[in-house]
Structure formats: structure tokens, C-alpha cells
Amino acid sequence: MGFSKAAACEQNLSPRQSDNVTIEGTIRDTAGKPVADATVILEEKHNAKRIEAKTNADGNFVFTIGQAGTFTVVARKTGFSDSVADSLVVSLGEKKRVDLVLVAPPSFTASPGTMEFKDEPSFTVAGVTDWSNLGLHGSAASSKTSESLAKETSALKSSEAEAAPAGGVSKRYQMALAYRDKGDFSAARQEVRKALAVADDAEGHRLLGELDEQLNEPLEAVREYEHAARMDPTEQNYFEWGTELLLHKAAEPAVEVFTRGSSAHPKSARMRTGLGAALYASGSWEEAARSLCAASDLQPADPAPYLFLGKIEKTSPSPLPCSEEKLARFAQEQPGNALANFYYAISVWKREKGSEDPAGRKHAETLLEKAVAIDPKLGEAYLQLGIVHSAGRDFEQAIRDYKKAMDVNPRLGEAHRELGLIYQRTGDNAKSQQEFGAYQEIEKAEAAERERERRELRQFLIILKDQPAGTQPR
Hints:
Number of strands: 10
Shape: globular
CATH superfamily of the domain at 17-102: Carboxypeptidase-like, regulatory domain
Radius of gyration: 24 Å
Number of helices: 17
CATH class of the domain at 17-102: Mainly Beta
Distance between the termini: 52 Å
Order of helices and strands: EEEEEEEEEHHHHHHHHHHHHHHHHHE
Low-confidence stretches: 4-17, 106-114, 133-138, 162-167, 468-474
CATH architecture of the domain at 17-102: Sandwich
């Protein structure tokens, strides 16, 4: 089903206001100034058709359409990263306001290649602060995905360490490692400092960075990781430094470090994977996809780049470059991997959902059925099956799919929302309101949990070196 009525920028084409859905808002830059002539795109969830508007001189836009649904709003302008608001559930007669901020990513001019440390990075970590929503942009879904990818990038450090041969750490740090493995990070740090007092080396500073992070002293950690990379710009030292920046929401500096690391170590798949995560966090989704595709080409058997790519494909409002091709390879080379089939199905569905050809829908359905056969606890695959069946107007099967998704994952809010939309379309308003209420309760609880986790995280305060002194944070 496409949009039955549409209007752009302060136009209203419908004769009956009560039958309309209105989505309006203002696009501003990070200084709070309105952005004129920005493109604003409105898409209904699971529908490939879209309508576009341009902001006026005050940065305002208005869409008026003739149907309820779940919508995504994307603001876009050359020179800025896209800003996205998704999962907007709007009923007939309702007016929804969406204000978005376009962020211009800083320009890094440092030369590529191995970091010569006369060639300074273009940023300084000036301090840390408690969570205050710094660095977050776009939709709740994209912020949640960004945080997930940062944690998974950090996990790549552990997997690499496990794969390293025994005895890879110098004997002078064996006592420190013994304390670390017992969980006594303070004693471990003291042992490393003793060893460094005798002979200074990059390995010791990297270990100090790890221990400082464990002791919740991220400012000291990032400085130790930087020190290690300055002394010895190995792949590991670049990766540790970039990951520490990413974990503490310094996305643009992480992009710089991972970019330099990828140039210096072009055969490192995890460096490209980390770069993809950092680019996504900074709002450069297409560039993130390209970096992850390149990582998958470097190491086709490694699932990590594909899983990162699948996650950002799932949250992206439109198909990403190279994504379907690489996810198809993932499913072909790892046919017994439920997530490989699930993410490939997502990419197929994005391409085919606006088509009248049932073959694409059937292809996605087959992949999703295979995914749940491999992993019957994969609630998101049941959810996506419901979406596919709903698009084919097989509402009875879609309802069964959504209920199965809830059975295996009671906290899967999207299943309640999609089920509510089906009940709304079929005229069962009581059940519709019940499902929307359940969805809102789950979203509220998840938002509270995310806020709690963020408040426990200390964020880096970054100063760009070409920034005027009067604008530096205190």
C-alpha cells in the first residue's frame, strides 16, 4: 500500500482534516540555526514508496498524508550527516512533531599512512564527563545500534587476544597478567608501572590502558593507548586506541584513528570493521557499509563484518551500498548460521518490498523460515516474517508470526506495535490499543535501562586542534 495523499512544505491536499496524518517539524544545525532547503524524506515502515519535501527559510517542513502507520523521517543535506527519526506510530487525525539536527562531521586533514608522530592527530581528549546526551544523534534505534556496535568492536580485542599464541606477552609482565586474571587490577597496574620504570615500552602502556579502563579511569586509559601507538604504531595499538575512543562516544576521533590504522595496516579486517562502527556512530552510514564490505572481502570467513553490516542494514531507512551482495555471500558460505539467513532476508526485503513481483517476497520468506528453523529462539526473524506476511495481506499468518515472536522474546516491542497496526487495519480497536499500550510500556522500560547504562558511562570531551580557544569545553 502506497501513500494515498501527500503534501510537502506547508501544503495540504486533503479535504477532510480528520482523515489526515500530519508530520511536521524543524531541521536545525548543531548551533541551533534553521537549515533551509534541506531534503526531508518520509517513508512508511515496510513500504518502499516515499515522499519528499524541502525545508523553507525557517527550516520547517510539513507532510500531510491520508493514512495511519509507522513512519521514518530522514533529513538530508550535502555537507551534513543524515539525521533520522524512526518508529513514529501515528493514527488518523493525529499530528506528530519531529525536530531533527543535522551534524557536519569535522574535516580531518592528517595524511594517511603510518602515523608519524610529528604528524599529530587533529584532536585532543580534554577530559571526561558523565552522560549528558553528548554525541548522540539520529533516532533511538540508530543510537542503540551504535552503542551495540561499540561494545562488539571492543569484543574483537578479546577474540584477537584469545587467538594469539601463548607467551605473546613479555615475561616482564607475567606477574601483572597473573593479578589481572585474578581480578586484582590495581595490583596488576602497579606491577606494570614497576616494569615501565625499569624500561619504557609500548606493550606496557597498552597493558596500562587495559587496566585503567577496568578501573573505570578512561581518560588515563585513552592516553596510555595513544602513548603505545606513538611508540609503536602496530595494528593492535591502533585498534586499542580507536576502540577506546569509540566506547566513550568520541566517534569522529575514532574515525580518524581507524582510518589511519586501516591505511597503515591495509590487510586488517578488524581495523576496517572498527572503522565501519565508528563511521556509523558519526552518522556516515553509507561509508560505514563500504568499510564493512571491504572488511568482509579481506576475511570472508569471519562473521564479524557481516554481523555489523546486517545490524546497520536493519536500522537504515534505505538499502545500503554493497550490503545485499556481501550478506548473500555470508548466507551462502555459512548456510547453518541463523543470523546469516536473517540479515540476508532483511536486505532482500528492503529491495523487493515496493515491487509487485511476489518472487522477492517469497525469497525473503524462505530465508526467514530457514533462520527460525536453525534458531527457533530468534524472535526478530518471526517478527520479520510477520512483516512480510502482512505486506502480502495474509493477516492471519502475520498475527501468528507476531505472537510467536512475543513467545520467544516477550520484550520485543516491535512485535506488539506491528500487531497493533494489523488490528487497527482490521477494525479491532480494542486489541489495537492494547498492543500499542504494551509496545509503549516496553519502549519506556528499555529507554530507562539505556539511560541507566549511559549514565554509568563516562564520555570523552574532545577538543579539535583548529577550534578557537574561546569555544573549548571546560
